[in-house]
Amino acid sequence: MQATADRALERAWEVLESVPDPEIPVVSIRELGILRDVRRAADGQIEVVITPTYSGCPAMSQIAEDVAHALDVAELAPYRIATTLTPAWTTDWITDEAREKLRAYGIAPPTGNCGSGTVQAGEQPITFMPKPLPVPACPHCGSHHTERLAQFGSTACKALYRCIDCREPFDYFKPY
Q1: Where in the chain is the domain with CATH 3.30.300.130?
Q2: Separation CA 77–CA 67 (nearest Å)
Q3: What tens digit of pLDDT does each residue of 70-114 get?
Q4: pTM beyond 0.85, yes or no
Q5: Sign (positive/negative) of CA torsion 19, 118, 152, 102?
Q6: Which helix H or strand E contains 172, and what residues bound it?
Q7: Residue 109 and residue 138: Cα distance in Å, rounded?
Q8: What's the CATH architecture for 2-83?
């Protein structure tokens, strides 16, 4: 039974690898760090754990539907999908390959590191002054000569920028 269960979990990871983010279809939910775990629950069911990019993310119901559809097509029932808010998602979880895919798609990936790995469990960092964000490079021409037009872009997790050199607008995936 254990060998069969392990194959089912491996197959579930493989299947879910191809589930795209509904807002940015060039990257998978695993590449964005939304897919947190695929495990065997105490009752034997496959449990898929997902974390939203922010607590009010409207795409989470669509992501859950897409995960369910992928598992159904692969005949991996029974399963359940659990959404967890802790630890909170961070742009540090975006893979390097996803950052390149975002850039090629015309979205400037988040710059820097949020330091999400430095906080110990149970600690709550306090920030009195926002740290200055690095200027994002234009995903079209690579120039750092850019300006923010709006704090929010096509979604709440992105800001709207414009390149001053090539004049192209672009979304910037905000680091947090």
Answers
A1: 2-83
A2: 12
A3: 999 999 999 999 999 999 999 999 999 999 999 999 999 998 666
A4: no
A5: negative
A6: strand 169-173
A7: 10
A8: 2-Layer Sandwich (3.30)
